[in-house]
Here is the input.
Amino acid sequence: MTRINNDTRVVVALGGNALGDTPEEQIARVREAAPTLLKMIEQGNEIIITHGNGPQVGMIQKAFTLAAEDDPKVPTMPLPECGAMSQGYIGYHLQQALGVAMRKSYKRWHVASIVTQMEVDPDDPAFANPTKPIGVFLTEEQAKAEMAEHPDQVFVEDSGRGWRRVVASPQPKKIVEAPSILNLLDNEFIVIACGGGGIPVVRDYQDKGAYKGVAAVIDKDMGGELLAEDCKADYLFLLTAVEYVCTGFGTPEQKELVDISADEAEALANAGEFGKGSMEPKVRAAIKFVRSRPGRTCIIGALDKAPETMAGLSGTRIHA
Here is the structure.
């Protein structure tokens, strides 16, 4: 096996929306990105890959929900299990894409996907204020019927499009599989981990402190940031559907940000310059990462321009 150099450690986060809306789109996009990921290794970097899973989890949950409506014998699928399924099949596509790229360049590196749990605090205030919409749209009558049948579930009206279930988005505290991830890295593996921010779990002290899943969603960018910290990464690449972080996005005053400090980024975020559910979490994760240790850098850019982004020719560079 060709040895992977360890000069620089890099976490590459692929946005769930940037991977497309269907398995076919996802396969095409990860195959386009795979040669660039391998090129990073050839340049003397050790890489860890993470990814979003929002569209994919919604697709899985919707499929089970619709199937259960047609056949009562088909169970609905709990959210933690949907997250685990999405980690599995996205990791599978990434492994295959990297395998194709490696064969074309005569490399024989190993790749492993880790179904990753993320410990959260059961007393996190987010559990008292669920805000993350998931699943299919329902009518008001259907939503109220669901809440009557499942009192622990909350549904809200979503922008005039119908009612959707909302769940908590607690802060990630600990990557349960961190020792396994580090062990694989030390043994020359390309590692895929913390998909979708990781599966939220809490300690179950009625079961000797083992972990159990909870119906919540970890912010994928904060999950990727914690992964980068735990792996002692030097760089964090957040690859999404747009090329630059912008102020005034979608307006005539839109301005692309190329190189900014964490302090500048924080001031803009506090002023509400970035989308709450889209770009702001990425910027907040970047700020946290670059401040966690001197010399760290985060670059936010487009997945379809991954080679340029990783070469420093595209994307927004955020530093301390």
